[in-house]
């Protein structure tokens, strides 16, 4: 089975054709370095148009850097950041946010289906207000969440009102932001600055790029000196155009949204095909491009023996993740193998 026959991660996919074509176009001539090139300007302007607001845009290599540096910009070392206990910044960034902020503490909240609840936020903000405890200053929401669910615009507005009351900045981990927009069928502004998000880390990597994340500051006062923070962290690409030009490929004709819609549709096909099969049940509602299922260990082992790859370490179940490159044939082949093994 080829390496593309997998549901391990959207990080396994290749580069989508439109991004590749834009990369080739950027490769035709020399361009200024360190973000001074025409492609970076075009990509940043394209994101300002997409979000319909005058936001500050920066490009970094990966999501851990984007999250870590963004969080370091919205709080100090003596502050704390509230996030869900399943948040990637807690579970899979190796202390990056704490390191980049020189010590800000992550306070872990709860909520069904991987979503922080206003009650959990209030509890964490008020449980200790004495000088000995790191003062809550920021909130991190993952949209779509690590377990493939989404915050609705209304849920975000309620969380914003809690954040306002407690003077918290809001960071959004948008590793699968495109998938959330596609699932909610809203304008991107509805689940970002109009819902009070201060900074968004918008992943290109999971949406068809080789690498490259956009850090979008809607609250521009928090972006002060961010470029120096990136430079010191080794996140200022000298040939920035090779990150920003593929972003132009995603933005042109809303390829970013089509890629997300496709990934979500493949996951929907997969979830529907698994429903009702003996011993298999969904662990979380399928809302974007991931399907989280409880499957007996022997079945998982048999699928892996057939070459299928998928993770078990997220959300306490098997995660089947689709991408822009997933095909219906691949989904149907997986389902056929599952049906044969459970029959
Ligand atoms: C929810 C989430 N946030 C952030 C990231 C960024 O991680 P990376 O540093 O691997 O780009 C990922 C990675 O896949 C992710 O799943
Ligand atoms: C979990 C892993 O770090 C990666 N963020 C993924 O979702 O595949």
UniProtKB/TrEMBL annotation:
GO terms for biological process: L-threonine catabolic process. Residues 6-295 form the Aromatic amino acid beta-eliminating lyase/threonine aldolase domain. Keywords: Lyase, Pyridoxal phosphate. It catalyses: L-threonine = acetaldehyde + glycine; L-allo-threonine = acetaldehyde + glycine. InterPro entries: ArAA_b-elim_lyase/Thr_aldolase, Low_specificity_L-TA_bact, PyrdxlP-dep_Trfase, PyrdxlP-dep_Trfase_major, PyrdxlP-dep_Trfase_small. Pfam families: Beta_elim_lyase. Its cofactor is pyridoxal 5'-phosphate. The keyword Lyase applies. Its EC number is 4.1.2.48. GO terms for molecular function: L-allo-threonine aldolase activity. Belongs to the threonine aldolase family. Catalyzes the cleavage of L-allo-threonine and L-threonine to glycine and acetaldehyde. Homotetramer. This is L-threonine aldolase.
């Amino acid at each position: 089975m080829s390496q593309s026959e997998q549901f391990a991660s959207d990080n396994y996919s290749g580069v989508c054709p439109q991004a590749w074509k834009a990369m080739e176009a950027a490769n035709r001539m020399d361009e200024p370095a360190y973000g001074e090139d025409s492609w970076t300007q075009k990509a940043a302007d394209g994101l300002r148009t997409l979000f319909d607001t005058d936001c500050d845009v920066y490009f970094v290599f990966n999501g851990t850097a984007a999250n870590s540096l963004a969080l370091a910009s919205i709080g100090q070392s003596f502050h704390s950041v509230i996030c869900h206990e399943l948040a990637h910044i807690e579970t899979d960034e190796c202390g990056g946010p704490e390191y980049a902020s020189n010590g800000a503490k992550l306070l872990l909240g709860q909520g069904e289906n991987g979503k922080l609840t206003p009650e959990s936020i209030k509890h964490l903000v008020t449980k200790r207000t004495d000088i000995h405890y790191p003062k809550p200053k920021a909130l991190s929401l993952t949209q779509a969440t690590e377990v493939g669910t989404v915050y609705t615009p209304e849920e975000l507005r309620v969380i914003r009102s809690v954040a306002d009351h407690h003077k918290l900045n809001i960071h959004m981990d948008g590793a699968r932001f495109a998938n959330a927009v596609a699932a909610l069928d809203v304008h991107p502004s509805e689940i970002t600055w109009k819902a009070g998000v201060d900074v968004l880390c918008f992943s290109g990597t999971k949406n068809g790029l080789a690498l490259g994340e956009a850090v979008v500051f809607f609250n521009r006062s928090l972006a002060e000196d961010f470029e120096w923070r990136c430079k010191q962290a080794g996140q200022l690409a000298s040939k920035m155009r090779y990150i920003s030009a593929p972003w132009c490929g995603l933005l042109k004709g809303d390829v970013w949204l089509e890629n997300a819609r496709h990934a979500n549709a493949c996951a929907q096909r997969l979830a529907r095909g698994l429903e009702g099969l003996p011993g298999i049940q969904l662990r979380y509602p399928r809302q974007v491009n991931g399907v989280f299922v409880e499957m007996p260990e022997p079945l998982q082992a048999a699928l892996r023996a057939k070459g299928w790859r998928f993770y078990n370490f997220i959300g306490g179940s098997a995660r089947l993740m689709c991408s822009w490159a997933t095909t219906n044939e691949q989904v149907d082949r997986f389902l056929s193998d599952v049906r044969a093994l459970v029959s």
